[in-house]
Amino acid sequence: MSTQLLAFAMPGLPEMMIVLFVALLLFGGARLPSLMRNMGRSINEFKSGMSDQGDSDDVPQDSDSKSKPVV
């Protein structure tokens, strides 16, 4: 049973270096920083969207603001 748990452990330094090397080969050194920056922005937007969605469910809607005409 302990060998099954070890199969799903976090990747170590050698595995991470292999992944970074393959990413460098695929995308090149010039595009890799911008790719990581865009990925970070996407993750931040996703997290803020998820927190906004959770907050909007708890806030009751004001029915008076919908019925008043905007001048």
UniProtKB/TrEMBL annotation:
Bilayer-spanning residue ranges: 12-32
BP GO terms, sorted: protein transport by the Tat complex
Pfam families to which the protein is assigned, alphabetical: TatA_B_E (PF02416)
Region feature Disordered, mapped onto this chain: 46-71
One GO cellular component term noted in the UniProt record for this chain: TAT protein transport complex
InterPro entries per record: TatA/B/E, TatA/E
Bilayer disposition of the protein: Single-pass membrane protein
MF (Gene Ontology): protein transmembrane transporter activity
Assigned protein family: Belongs to the TatA/E family.
Subunit relationships: Forms a complex with TatC.
Cellular compartments annotated: Cell membrane
Protein name per UniProt: Sec-independent protein translocase protein TatA
UniProt function note: Part of the twin-arginine translocation (Tat) system that transports large folded proteins containing a characteristic twin-arginine motif in their signal peptide across membranes. TatA could form the protein-conducting channel of the Tat system.
Alphabetical UniProt keywords: Cell membrane, Membrane, Protein transport, Translocation, Transmembrane, Transmembrane helix, Transport
